[in-house]
Amino acid sequence: MAAATFPDLTKILSASELKTIVDQYNPVVMGQLLSAKLLAQYPTIRLELTGIGDTIYPELNAKPDTPLSAANRERCLVALLACRSRRIELAIHVYMALANGVTPAELAHIVVTAGIYTGVDTVSSAFDVLQGTFTTLQELAQNKTVDPSKAILELAKALPD
Predict the structure, then answer these.
(1) 76 to each of 16, 20, 79, 96, 154, how far by Cα in Å?
(2) Among 24, 67, 145, 150, which has the minimal tally of Cβ within 10 Å of its Cβ?
(3) How many Cβ atoms sit within 10 Å of the Cβ of residue 76?
(4) What is the pLDDT of residues 43-80, one digit of tens each?
């Protein structure tokens, strides 16, 4: 059996657009945005969220000291979120994966792999999120406005749960 390819999906973002995403990504700003959102949703577990954030996302607090690289962490989270049908959360972690050097082709294969174990509906839904995320980020990258705050805002508009 030949290896699966995803030409339409993996060619949405050009090399220069991917570079813009990487160059404009600021992990500290991203950490502040994610922390504010989570703390607003779950105010009673503030200390626990801070501990989780410091452990799993040390680079978001400008302390990159963890055995799991940011790119590998995002690969894991994309697989998990693809299985849960959480559109905006998946989109945000796809963005974070791209910003940390994970390629669109890798993300497509991660979704397929997750879908093998969770069903065709998972693959279909996650591919829809990948396409929407790539297209939204492409537009932002072309306009050179793909900083984390703008990216999250536009992803939330494009991919509501």
Answers:
(1) 26, 24, 5, 12, 24
(2) 67
(3) 13
(4) 888 778 777 777 787 776 656 667 788 899 999 999 99
